[in-house]
Amino acid sequence: MRYATxxxxxxxxxxxxxxxxxxxxxxxxxxxxDENSDVKTYRLKVGDGFSRSAAAGQFNMxxxxxxxxxxxxxxxxxxxxxxxxTIRAVGxxxxxxxxxxxxxxxxxxxxxxxxxxxxxxxxxDLLLVAGGVGLAPIRPVIRQIMKNRADFGEVTLLIGSRNxxxxxxxxxxSAWQKAMSVEITVDELVTKKPWNYRVGLITALLxxxxxxxxxxxxxxxxxxxxxxxxxxxxxxxxxxxxxxxVSLERRMRxxxxxxxxxxxxxxxxxRDGPVFPYKQVEGLFDGxx
Amino acid sequence: xxxxxxxxxxxxxIFDLIVPKRSFFSWLDSLRGRFSLVGPVTEDxxxxxxxxxxxxxxxxxxxxxxxxPGKVYLYKPREDLFRFSLGKSVEVREPETDQEQRVIIGLxxxxxxxxxxxxLTFLGSFRDPQYxxxxxxxxxxxxxxxxxxxxxxxxxxxxGPFLEGNDGYDMLLTDLGEDYLxxxxxxxxxxxxxxxxxxxxxxxxFRFKQEKEQAVVHSFRKKLDMDxxxxxxxxxxxxxxxxxxxxxxxxxxxxxxxxxxxxxxYDVIDEISMDLKSVRRYRQxxxxxxxxxxxxxGGNFRARRTARLRQFTTHKLDxxxxxxxxxxxxxxxxxxxxxxxxDITDIAKEVQKSEVGSER
Lengths: 289, 360
Ligand SMILES: Cc1cc2nc3c(=O)[nH]c(=O)nc-3n(C[C@H](O)[C@H](O)[C@H](O)COP(=O)(O)OP(=O)(O)OC[C@H]3O[C@@H](n4cnc5c(N)ncnc54)[C@H](O)[C@@H]3O)c2cc1C
Ligand code: SF4
Hints:
The structure holds two protein chains of two kinds. Chain A has helices spanning 92-98, 118-121, 139-147, 173-177, 202-205, 224-236, 269-272, 278-281, and strands at 25-34, 39-46, 59-64, 68-73, 76-77, 82-88, 105-112, 125-131, 155-163, 181-188, 198-199, 216-221, 244-247, 263-264, 267-268, 275-277. Chain A is α/β, with parallel strands linked by helices. Chain A folds into two domains: 3-112, Elongation Factor Tu (Ef-tu), domain 3; 118-281, 3-Layer(aba) Sandwich (Rossmann fold), CATH 3.40.50.80. In chain A, strand 8 (125-131), helix 3 and strand 9 (155-163) form a beta-alpha-beta unit. Chain A is globular and about 50 Å long. The longest helix of chain B has 16 residues, at 203-218. Helix content of chain B is 32%, strand content 21%. Chain B contains 13 helices and 14 strands. Chain B folds into two domains: 15-76 and 85-218, no CATH class; 232-359, no CATH class. Chain B is globular and about 65 Å long. Flavin-adenine dinucleotide binds next to strand 4, strand 6 and helix 1 of chain A.
């Protein structure tokens, strides 16, 4: 028999007031910081009902009534019930959020999805590669490494951006450099500010990475084409396909494997991802990996 | 195909009865008041599931409906999710869950299996409160098919024409002419149906049922060999059939998705009141065939019709790693209601054909 299902039992009744997965909770903005002209980092105080067990790489649905919701990764996970999101204003929801001020109320639900396999990276060399706002979901990983530096071998962070104006978290780089080597490149320079890093594609930075690809674990987040080039280059350098993780972005309405928008050849990116082992999503149609 | 040894219902054969149709229908009518009755009604040649004034309105020989009962009565085309009031602080209100007690009569095997499929989405990793409440408050009386329709391929899909398994529904009817073979499949069916309402069904009733099933199985005109299909279609995303079918014929009208009993996708929409003081958030069915479905800021993962038709088709005839079952129940609606006659079984056969060719 192909179609088996669970019995519809008593326990499946939805008692009034019990958990509704689409119901958002209130959060209050406790701080807003400009990263650049269209990216800001928002610090949010979430209520007691919000899970304290968020993991790096997971995301929330963030929004406001009348505006809708957008999936946004954690860029910071505090132990004090405060979390951070770093958001580029591109459309309806994100532009609305951009106009919010300290003290404003927002609606949030989550955390959703699978995060970075940090456990599997323990004891190994770790390569982090981030393009554009893709650095946001990598930031909680950086912070965990800084907190538990001895758990990891060599750590290298490669940051790429379209231009120097588009970089985010710039005032944190020097702190990060104490715990790992940080390489930065931009496609072009547009500000007149002094520039001590590189100009060129992020793939070119791979040649500067000292760790041995065979022993390394890599977490990659950025535009899908960039992730493709990075993964293929790493495989050519001898990385094991199973050691590469990528974070995918798809349209999402629910975040809970129901609305179907994020489906990618049978995967629900919201639930089975957004972080996937590269080999699971490599070469799938309707994707660029 | 049914003979898995458990045909006798939960436990003993006492739960399988031969019931004269007349008594069955008067039992149904006796439920009115406590339950609202929903069943197939045919008008001007078209059948649809609707609320019944009396069981006499039902057409138990109907062939197919445009919309499946599961998607009209359990997973609604449009559903309110929340009301927000926008004062100094936002208030969120959840609508009450639907407590209407319903009996849906006459779901074919395909549509019953489609409900089981919807369960995987809405009672899976996250439980949808509205769906769960309706599922709980709805008694499902299924009906084995007496004949196959032009576009039916449930026998190929393993989802019909006779319903297998004992879970996910309450009663199963097989037409025996003057009588129904009534199999009681759930505790509440046992409670609702008077056990003395018929005579115990014996071996011969089940032998007759099996013969009937064989006759229907042999009557199918549309067939698809689904063994080995999973993995095959997704392995050939560049097969010319995708492009030829989609670019020449697909209108992206989304009919196929709307009539599909297993398609579960939805959109979430916020509607602001004129005085800007409250917001209604609702969901409504959405379709992967729609051009904007997979659009994100700065791109669209399925901008081309080819990609969208391929997503729809492989979701039905491949991608079984999603739920462990095929997404199709073989009801044939997507074929029937496609304005340009696109048939996903034809697409699959094209790919199968060239696969045989390439192995030589
Ligand atoms: C798992 C995940 C994590 C993300 N993390 C971040 C992050 O940390 N920071 C950040 O700036 N952005 C992030 N994004 C992208 C962000 O969700 C989109 O930019 C945002 O949804 C755009 O919504 P909008 O209403 O402002 O834009 P509009 O263009 O007005 O979008 C209209 C609708 O389309 C959908 N949509 C459009 N673009 C996207 C998209 N890229 N992804 C998903 N749905 C989309 C949304 O549902 C939205 O309501 C993430 C996306 C995903 C899937
Ligand atoms: S019903 Fe036919 S034409 Fe319309 S979207 Fe589906 S396949 Fe395309």
